[in-house]
TrEMBL record:
It comes from Roseococcus suduntuyensis. This is Arc/MetJ-type ribon-helix-helix transcriptional regulator. SUPFAM superfamilies: Ribbon-helix-helix. GO terms for biological process: regulation of DNA-templated transcription. It comes from the Bacteria.
Amino acid sequence: MAGNVQELRPKAGGDSEKITINLGYVDLGHIDLLVQDGFYANRTDFIRTAIRNQVERHADAARQSVARRSLDLGLRHFTRADLEAARDSGRPLDIRVLGLASIAADVTPELARAAIASLSVLGALQASAEVKAALADRMR
């Protein structure tokens, strides 16, 4: 299953998650000033750049933490066949992902519970509401 891991690159649009943040008026004003002066295309460009700079600043610590926690980094997609194989082998999965974990739309809640022992996602989880509800007690 390790062949299903793909590294993600930050992209705008459909490959991103929308978040909401609260900023003080002065910080927001500074951002707007930098945008008006042409340093950034817009507020979002500034915020993404700031986040990337902080992630890069702590890259060594993050790499060590990813290794220590045995996290899959990037995109990890679980198909119905993947989960059936885990269930049939008697070895439920301990899923740990930093990025995006997705569970195929044709996976039933019963199959998810039988195949997944634990689920820890730092980033986003894409799965049906029913599957998420079935795994709620296994999420960390």
